[in-house]
Design goal:
26% helix; five-stranded mixed beta sheet; six-stranded mixed beta sheet; 7 helices; 266 residues
Length: 266
């Protein structure tokens, strides 16, 4: 069954910034809420800044999960309500919603779809149907305009793949390699995003070759992969599992509105 793209037509900006939000883990006592509140104000302050809900923004410790239910700052319901209030000022700037493995715990146990609830509350039921995807999201973003000989041409268009992510090994290199292999299996991407692995801010560009049968050409093009980090201080199960600490805070994807160029700020 073909999957429908999430399509966004944005204004004539020179550039836009996209911030994937993943692994906030609302309810975890080690989550840095102060940093996140300042980040929301930062997104709100500029109309060219947008964000993605990329999963695990609720810690959602339940009895059948690895997380310790007795260590949570809030219950799963309170986490959902708290996160909604945190991001309400930037609700209209969200480009997609996908759950992570922490939110999927409730879907599996009791058919409770927490991220769908969040999307409906933030953007309304009709808009949520456009922006919510259960497993992965493919988004098409058109904005700005090519400049050729001083004359405006058609908008610059980007296609992105958003996935919460899966395990990638202990070291950063293993995570980057696995993500690249998965991205190379999808033709036509300009950028891809994953979270989950708590490795820190990672941006990686690589080239792929594709055949253009219409023009009888073999083309080479860039893909940008971004692995976003968590918002938590190190400790807890990460320390118990002898995992490596990762940097916390937002990652930024910059899309150019005058030429085809995707970059990241680390």
């Amino acid at each position: 069954m073909p999957e429908k793209l999430i399509v966004h037509k944005l204004p004539d900006y020179d550039y836009i910034e996209i911030y994937p939000i993943a692994d906030f883990h609302d309810g975890d006592p080690k989550t840095d809420e102060t940093m996140f509140k300042n980040f929301v104000k930062y997104i709100e302050a500029d109309e060219r800044r947008y964000w993605l809900y990329a999963g695990d923004n609720l810690n959602n410790a339940i009895k059948s999960s690895v997380s310790n239910v007795y260590n949570e700052k809030r219950s799963p319901h309170e986490q959902k309500e708290h996160f909604i209030e945190l991001v309400r000022p930037i609700a209209d700037k969200c480009l997609c919603f996908i759950p992570g493995n922490h939110e999927v715990r409730s879907a599996k146990e009791s058919d409770c779809h927490l991220v769908w609830d969040i999307a409906c509350r933030l953007v309304g039921d009709e808009k949520a149907r456009e922006l919510y995807r259960e497993n992965e999201a493919f988004i098409k973003i058109s904005f700005g305009e090519y400049r050729c000989g001083g004359k405006p041409q058609k908008p610059v268009t980007y296609v992105g793949w958003i996935h919460h992510g899966v395990g990638g090994g202990m070291y950063v290199g293993a995570t980057v390699n696995k993500f690249q292999l998965r991205t190379m299996a999808i033709e036509g991407l300009d950028f891809a995003v994953q979270g989950h692995v708590h490795k820190g801010k990672i941006g990686h560009k690589f080239d792929v070759r594709s055949v253009d049968p219409r023009n009888n050409m073999v083309l080479q093009r860039e893909i940008l992969n971004v692995i976003c980090c968590a918002w938590s201080d190190f400790g807890g199960y990460g320390a118990r599992g002898m995992m490596l600490p990762g940097h916390k805070g937002p990652s930024c994807i910059v899309l150019n509105g005058r030429r085809k160029e995707a970059t990241t700020i680390i």
